[in-house]
Design goal:
alpha/beta, Rossmann fold, 6-stranded mixed sheet, 13 strands, binds NADP nicotinamide-adenine-dinucleotide phosphate
Length: about 300
């Protein structure tokens, strides 16, 4: 385990064994075969290439995702792209993209997606541990009728909703929204048009997405359900009764991407609406990174 000098020497228990945290600045990457980077773009920029001279890097940050020489991988969607490892670096997509492409893949294969309109409902853990601690702190302050001053958010997050994740670009979209567009194209199909609105909610874990899809080909709801249910990592929960759908709390700690509220969009030809929920820390980050490593080992790419 490697972190900043702030954590050096700290002991972390993993599977019953204590591991001492080491300092990244002095870490010897020749000692490892695979390094998982999960400390943000600036750290990946500074250290990933140095590490990649000695070992394979699986990078959780956004820094290498759009590099044409770096594969951007969700194993059950595009593991074939693992054949193109040039820099010894593999990128892990953004959390909101991973759960989206997992649900889109089986549908794209059958009915060819033309356009997607997605609105996200993202938990504070997408920003790391500090925003999670702050949501709890802010909630207590509001309940105690005390003044709230936001540190990790642009506005109060407790009992509120913020339509802004990551920095703004010149055209008014945020970087998080552009990541969803660009990463979906890179992973799934460059021809897919996608427009996104990304919103932060006072939820600790799991991201939700309201997704409107326009297909090239006609579909049936029965075929959509069957395709989603049979796809690795997807689970349909769609009873059309009170509570017969997935929510962030229920998705927390689970590995599946849950799909609910499957219904026809009657306002366009071949239109479909879905509600997608998944644990952003597991499926949207750590688990996908580990599954990339497993896919490499399974396909004998690793070690070449
Ligand atoms: N959370 C998600 O849903 C999600 C999804 C996909 C990708 N990601 C990406 O994963 C990365 C981390 O996210 P997180 O949620 O785990 O954040 P986090 O809870 O804030 O953790 C950040 C980690 O990075 C380490 N770190 C910070 N500065 C460092 C430095 N100078 N040298 C070495 N280590 C350093 C920290 O160690 P110290 O404690 O020593 O500072 C800490 O272990 C980000 O790039 C994020 O975009 C997150």
């Amino acid at each position: 385990m490697v972190a900043s000098s702030r954590s050096t020497g700290k002991k972390i228990n993993f599977k019953g064994k204590e591991h001492e945290v080491l300092d990244l600045e002095n870490f010897d990457f020749s000692k490892v075969k695979i390094a998982f980077f999960a400390a943000g773009g600036e750290i990946s920029k500074k250290f990933a290439q140095k590490a990649a001279k000695n070992c394979l890097v699986i990078d959780n940050s956004s820094y290498y995702r759009m590099d044409p020489e770096v594969p951007l991988i969700v194993p059950q969607v595009n593991s074939d792209d693992l054949k193109n490892i040039n820099k010894n670096i593999i990128a892990n997509p953004n959390c909101s993209t991973i759960q989206l492409v997992i649900a889109l893949k089986p549908l794209h294969d059958l009915f060819a997606i033309k356009r997607i309109v997605v609105s996200t409902y993202q938990s504070v853990s997408g920003g790391g541990k500090a925003p999670m601690d702050e949501l709890i702190e802010q909630t207590k302050l509001v309940l105690d009728n005390k003044k709230v001053k936001s540190k990790n958010f642009t506005k109060q997050i407790a009992f509120n909703v913020i339509p802004h994740i990551d920095v703004f670009s010149d055209d008014g979209y945020t970087k998080e929204e552009l990541k969803m567009t660009n990463e979906t194209k890179k992973i799934l199909d460059d021809k897919i048009n996608l427009t996104a609105t990304c919103v932060r909610l006072p939820v600790l874990v799991s991201h939700s997405e309201s997704v409107n899809i326009e297909f090239e080909k006609p579909y049936s709801l029965a075929k959509v359900r069957e395709a989603l249910d049979n796809f690795e990592g997807c689970k349909v929960i769609d009873d059309r009764t009170d509570g017969g759908y997935s929510t962030p709390l229920e998705a927390e700690g689970k590995v599946e991407t849950f799909i609910s509220r499957i219904r026809e969009d009657k306002t366009i030809k071949n239109g479909l609406n879905l509600w997608i929920v998944s644990d952003n820390l597991l499926r949207g980050a750590a688990l996908n990174a580990v599954e990339i490593a497993e896919a490499l080992i399974k396909n004998n790419f690793y070690g070449k």
